[in-house]
Amino acid sequence: MAAVYSGVHLKLKSARTPWEDKLKLARFAWVSHQCFLPNKEQVLLDWVSHTLVSYYNKKLELEDEVVEKLWAYLDNVIHSRRLQNLLKSGKTITLSFSIAQVINERLSEACSQKNQQNVGSVLSCSRGILSTPSLSIIYTAKSELLVDLLSKLSELACQQLASDDAVGSQLFSILHLTFAQYLLIQRQQTNPNRVFGQLTNHLLQPCLLLRHLLTTRNWTQADDNHVRQYLSREIRNQVEMLLQAGLFQPELFLSYKEELLPEQEPQEKKKGALKNLLLPVNTVQTKLGTGFCEPAIHGPVVASAVSLLYKLFLDSYCKAENHLVCFHMLTKLFDCLRLSSLQQGVGEDTLSPADWSTELLALEQLLNLVLNNDIYNIASDRIRHKEVQFGFYRKLAQMLLSHSQASIPAWFRCLKVLTSLNHLIIEPDLVDLVASAWVDAQVCELRAKKPQEALINTMFQTYSKLRQFPRLFEEVLTVICWPAVDELRLPVLPAGLTVKLRECLLELPHNQILDIVCLLVEKCQLLIPVVEGSADMALKLMTLSSVLHAFLFNMRSLDDVTPSPVVLRVQNLLAKMQQGIICPLIELLQVPRKEEKKLDLWLRKASDSVLLLVYTWIEIDTLFGLSCCKYVSPSAETDGASAAKPWDISTFIPGVEERCWERVMKLASSFTSTSKYCLELLALQKMKMILMQTEADVQALQQAAAFIIESGKASMSRGESEPWDGDISAINDLTYPTAHWHLVISNLTILLPYISLKNVQYIADVLLETLVLTRMQEAAADQEPSISIGNICLSLMYSPFLPEMKVLHCAFLTSLISHFARVLPSAAQDSVHLQLLQLSADHISWHEEILASCKTTDALEAQSENKQQDEPSLSWKTLEKVAQCVLLLAKNSSPVILKESHVESCLTLLEITSLLKLDNLLPSDCIRCFLLLLSLIANTRTSASCSKLLSLKFLSTCFHLLRCLQAGRNANSVFKVFHASDVLEAIITSQLTASKSFADSLTVHAWEEYLQEAQASLEHFLQMIVERRQSMRLNLEKFVSFLASCKPDVGAVKSKCWKNWNPAAEQLLLMSFTTLCHILTLYLQQQPEKKLQSTDILSALLESVVQQMGRAIEHGLQSNTQNHHLPVAFIPSVTTLLKADLSHAVRKGWQKNPEELCAFLEQSRVKLYQKFYSQILRDLLSAGGHLQFLQSALRFLAVFCSVPELYPGKENAVTVVYAIRKLLTGPAVTIQVIQNIQVELMEVVVQLLGNCSAEEFYAIMRLLLQGLEMRNTWQQKATEVLSAITLIKLLLSCPLSGDKEKAFWFASPQIITALALQTKEACQDQSLTSTVVVPILETTAALLRQGEGVLLNPHHVALAFSILLKVPLDHLKIEDYGNVFLGVHEVLFSIVQCHPKVMLKAAPSFLNSFHRLVASVMVEGRQRGDKGNTDEFEVILKCAHLVERMYSHIAAKTEEFTLFSAFIVAQYVTELQKVTLHPAVKKHLTEGIYHILDLCIDQDIKFLNASLPAGVREVFKDLYNDYNHYHKAKKQGEKKFTA
Hints:
Layout: H1 2-13, H2 19-31, H3 40-56, H4 64-79, H5 81-88, H6 97-111, H7 119-130, H8 133-140, H9 143-162, H10 169-188, H11 192-216, H12 225-247, H13 253-260, H14 280-289, H15 295-317, H16 323-335, H17 353-372, H18 378-384, H19 388-402, H20 409-421, H21 430-439, H22 446-465, H23 469-480, H24 495-505, H25 510-527, H26 535-554, H27 564-589, H28 600-627, H29 649-652, H30 658-669, H31 674-691, H32 698-711, H33 713-718, H34 736-746, H35 748-751, H36 757-774, H37 789-798, H38 806-823, H39 832-839, H40 859-866, H41 874-892, E1 896-898, H42 900-915, H43 923-938, E2 940-942, H44 948-966, H45 980-994, H46 1005-1028, H47 1032-1046, H48 1056-1059, H49 1063-1086, H50 1096-1118, H51 1130-1147, H52 1163-1180, H53 1187-1200, H54 1213-1224, H55 1231-1236, H56 1238-1251, H57 1254-1267, H58 1270-1274, H59 1278-1292, H60 1298-1322, H61 1329-1346, H62 1354-1364, H63 1374-1394, H64 1396-1401, H65 1403-1420, H66 1430-1452, H67 1454-1457, H68 1461-1472, H69 1479-1493, H70 1498-1507, H71 1510-1536
Parallel strand pairs: 1-2
Helix pairs in contact: 2-4, 3-4, 4-7, 6-7, 6-9, 7-10, 9-10, 9-11, 10-12, 11-12, 11-14, 11-15, 12-15, 15-16, 15-17, 17-20, 20-22, 21-23, 22-24, 23-25, 25-26, 25-27, 26-28, 27-28, 28-31, 31-32, 31-34, 34-37, 36-37, 36-38, 38-39, 38-42, 39-41, 41-43, 42-44, 43-44, 44-46, 45-47, 45-49, 46-49, ...
């Protein structure tokens, strides 16, 4: 041994030994058990460490390759399992401090870009050292080395983030680990000044830069996913924790206070303390000011740092007595921003728009922190501190208003916060604020409009509460009347602001609103004399008119309790408005003028103003007259008013002649703007007033309705429009069509009875054309919410009112059919095109059934009404004629060929058709729609060049709509125009012909979808025939005969008919047989026994169908020999056939002699079923994740296994279970697939266990237990375990009795033990969490629930705790975390509910298991620096709710758990002290622990106060105080009123 020792040691030390040999020897010595060295591991570590240190200290000269291998050797040794095992066994192995220094120096070189060699190995070594406690002492014992390492790693990370290279995980995982180590050391430091110095000197700058780069980096797919989603967030949180713990320790507050408040009185200062006090604020300012990063990002880094540092400062020191200190900290941090130089008039030109945005965002965050933490107390600041805060905020407001940045959202938000702090801050500059942030602000982007509206809303609310609303609007009117380019101004009160204004006006007293209205009227009167010829004045008048309209329309209405002086004042104001504004403007506009272009603008705006005011005046006057009995209209006081009709214009505006008004209307109608829209509103108002009279003038109503429709036709026909925000004063040439269409559609219920059928058809045509044009695409989510013609049309289509508008519904269907006719290519006579033209012909009244309710006096319509009795069935004759033509075309097989463009257009129209309520159509419309869809299905074909997927989608959509139509209340009306069997024949014939082009598409999803839709439609139609019971036998016999004629005999394989046969046609025909067989079987099963004789004919028919279907299936299987797998389409057919055979056997009395099944079934079909069963069992093994096949196959097995006599040979239920187990072990069968087929699996297992013998059940149990054997896990056969667990869970849901039940519960302890062992192994591999651990938890919970009263041995139940205590709850994906958490909770809940005695006996295990949930949800539910993912937070919130529920369940077991209540509370507050919970999570947990506190007696509270550690005790006191204040008081209040 001495020779071996001295040989190895000497060779490693010898200068003669080549370095390659030394490295080989060192590697051999480390791994070999034959090399015996005293303290070998320490010797080798010391050798490699000493060698590296000597090399970097220039004491050795080595080649780069050798140095690289030395680092690799050190890395391998540190990460070796051998070293880890030795350290676990208690052996002491250390590293020298010098190696840590070398590592830091290498990283420093890498930061300076001098030397990037061996960086990967160096980083890996540092990771291994830090993650091994006995080695990490070289850093933790010398915190300077750890600080230096952290600084260098942060700089490296910053360099990587700043580059365009992809970000890897190695560096950031080490950085995350290093931060965690330093945070532990930081908490253990006893000298706060030393921690502060270390942080500011070495870590502050790199940490702030790192946090900024992590926040602002544009992550790409090339970046490591773990860094992007997890490590970046965790490192940001660690940076914040490090800064808060280092910069703002409680011991440092005095230093901050002394520096920030130098004017404090001397007696507050401790003598001699000044010498030892730091200047922390000045230090931080200095560090932020120096250039620690590139100049381009220095500003943004400082801006993000300032808000973070202030937040952390407030979190540490913000108390009521420290608010002044907090304010002064704000001013110091604000000085670090570039905005601070603007207060002295310096630096404005140096800030770009991006810089402004960054700086204002930081300022906004600072001000929000002030507002949210109540730093600014107005009274205290004024009385005690000489308004020092007020002065600072005033200067801020002045700076913001003197440097307007209306394009930046944060600018508005800063002003909003200042207004919320104290309205007096902005009061002196109110005019400037109104001008720059509101009236004159050019805000076009939505992202800036929202904060602008929020600012103005804050002003509204503030001045509303102060009852100074007139003061605010006095300034608004002043700004409006300033000289300005009014054409560039945006509307003063857009739709969004009008809503906010309304909310305030509803709270204001009438007199304040009337003060503003009075101001507006006076301003308008001042402008009228100078408006003629002046576009500027006309624009100002229009703005004032729109504001006046907004106030009058959104104020509270007068009512019977309104004080008389207020009513009188309103009357006077309306009279003044009428006489002083409206009449002079009408007089001005009615003067005939020459057409001069320069007058266009002022005339247009003056016209808009007067029409808007006239409409406003009439609407308000009418409303007040209806709602207030004291109100007397100013128009009623004029002479002769009573003689006029109540809807004449002279009634409202005395002195205006009809001829003058017509001139004004003609002028207004020439502008597609507000004035024209107001004319339509006046016409609508006229209709409402007429309808309110006792006797309505129908002719006047028709004229008004026609005027509204005709007004917009020209604009609508141009097809040019823009979205409209609902602001009546902002209507222009492009928004007028939208506003007009909105008016028409939103008032259809008033207009529809009085417009001609021609105009109804016009509305339907526009509706359809718009929907086709927009292709039913909703507006983009990021656009401003506004009204568009497309949205209006979609809203009407989705509205429940459209089906109630029968005339429009009918007209829309006519328009739709006409559009289909235009889309389809026109062909020879009697083509589909011509049939559709007949179905939408103008000369035929399709409204016969509803025309009586449509009050029209149009000459043509009157004539049609008179002829209704003479020709009552013209439309029905047309329908019958078209129906026969459609069937004849289908019979002659002369379809129209559709190109791809035709198919796409048809699909668009079919999507629009789907928006109609097809189940609510009138009989004639139902027939027209049926004929349309039947024509498309039976008489059109897609061209050979058309996409097969598109063709299948077209047919699927047609069948889907046909099914929807058949579900309607008038679906039977189609039988008035043709026989059911003819329709079925036409559909099946056309589809068999069309299927030739789909022979190569049988494996695509579109074919499966097509078959499903066709089958559903056929099933509905056959159901209609059966339920109607008229000619049912005849129709079904003809259909069966037709199907039989379609399928050639097996012997006719070589005939001409068979040559054209294809698998697609075979599947279609089989689908038809299957559907018919299913309907007949279902019908016969539903018939009572007394009526069985009357159903003999149908039984014979079903027997015929079964025979045909059996032959078709047999032949299909024979022709499928080339394909190794069964076609999916065959399986439902065989299942249906088997059900029909079994139903037939039942009717013949099979259940009386169940063992003689073969006597009731044909031997050939028994063989067919057995053959099919065998094939399915084989195919299951290779089915993979083919969901449709699996579901169909399992449904067949469920029916087949319900009859044990059908099993072939010696096979039985065990064979099927074995096959299912093999299926579940397949690699493609994931958890998701198992969940999707769970219902079908359950049906199979229920039939298997219900019909198997006891011996077979024992064999099944042995099979399941084999799957739980540990060798499966050791051999990495996780799917074997999963299959066994899944089958056991299914078995638990089956009803068992007798020997089977006894056998299962006899094996249950073995099952629980096996599950516990499987959990122990699975928890070591995180990838098995979702596939093994979660199913085990679900199965355990089910086993414990079902075992209530059966599992009598407490030890067997307690085995569940061994599962729960091993399940991991940390470092999981959020989906896995939620599932695991729920699984553990369900197991605990099962024990609480079903095994309470076990819970009491094993209380420590139960409480430990539950405490793991509580601690876990606290860690996951802590407050984070970033907002996080909403979906992730929802999962955590659900987990917190589960904890709350469990607390309540535990508290319900009062007697059992009184002894443990104090222990549960102690566990809770101990964990709570470690984290700051998110409020929503904390709410759930707090409510839960309150239930446990209900169990605590006074002695428990005293015990907790005495025994808890100091920090935890404070948390408990806060919790107990809240409990007494909220929960206990509420509970006592409830008891007081409880009987």
